[in-house]
ATP synthase complex subunit 8
Amino acid sequence: MPQMAPISWLTLFIAFSLILLIFNFVNYYSFLPKTPEISQKTISSTSMNWKW
């Protein structure tokens, strides 16, 4: 809209960008994946003989 000053567009852009970054950081660091210890043992212990 031409009635709005450019500084308000800049502050809105910075505010929404910071909110987006903070939201992404919180979502990324709040997820803790479980290490599959059982699946690593089964893969390493089984032999890889292909039945062709």
In short: Residues 5 and 11 are 10 Å apart (CA to CA). The radius of gyration is 25 Å.
